[in-house]
Amino acid sequence: MLKRVLLCACLLAPSIAGAVDLPPEIKARGTLIAAIVPNYPPLEMKDPATGALTGFDVALGNALAEKLGLRMQWQETSFEAMLSSLRTERVDLILSGMSDLPARRDTASFIDYLRSGTQFFTQAGRAAEFPTREALCGQKVGASRRTSLPGVIKDFSDTACVAAGKPAIVVVGTEGSADARTQLRQGRIDAAMQGSETLPYIMAQEPNTYALVGEPTRWTLMGIAVTTAATPLRGAITQALRELIADGTYSKLPATWSLSSNGVQEVTIDAGQ
Description:
By secondary structure, the chain is of the alpha/beta class. It has helices at residues 2-20, 24-29, 56-67, 82-87, 149-161, 177-185, 199-205, 231-246, 249-256; strands at residues 31-36, 45-46, 53-54, 71-76, 93-94, 108-123, 140-144, 170-174, 191-195, 210-213, 219-227, 268-269. It has 9 helices and 12 strands.
């Protein structure tokens, strides 16, 4: 009987290893407080029927909290307020489709959990006008000004358009990705850029509306953000995420949310470019 108890304890040890190193205040509270902006399907959104939070990030966050023996407490905020909420410790982490960028690492350290591609797209009815990304030179292209995408468009324009003697892309900053799609449908811009992780889902929801233009211009990583000083919490979340990959829980989520090409096989820290 004693041998059986010891064997069970050994088998359970990996699944609770992360919880041992949790900061005492979080362990005592019993919850992880995560900032989220639920307007980026399929990563985070609200179920139109119930108003409940749903999406890949929500499912992953809840699974991570469970693995750590905690409950996830989601705190809705704006994209602009997320890093300040983290810095002032109003939240423990950010799990909301945030790209792991070097410019953000003065405030945050990132546990990378998903690949993101920067993807041009246009109206389905205009797909023939833009057979390649270079065909966008001289055109109006929109992207959320709250993100790094306007800069990505300009970098592409400088390299593929201006350096080749073609007119520059006119970059239009929008009030979010939904606004960019609205302007595209209204013909106010010729194309838009959005994360490749969102487009398959959106194109399935709005069939025959959009068409991709070429391949993603670059790939980067999305990360779960914690403060740079939160080493124990970062270690606990990293361990929990590795366990979710090892036990197969993680691998089921990308397929559920049309993200099969965006999943990762291993966990990295601050590896985004």
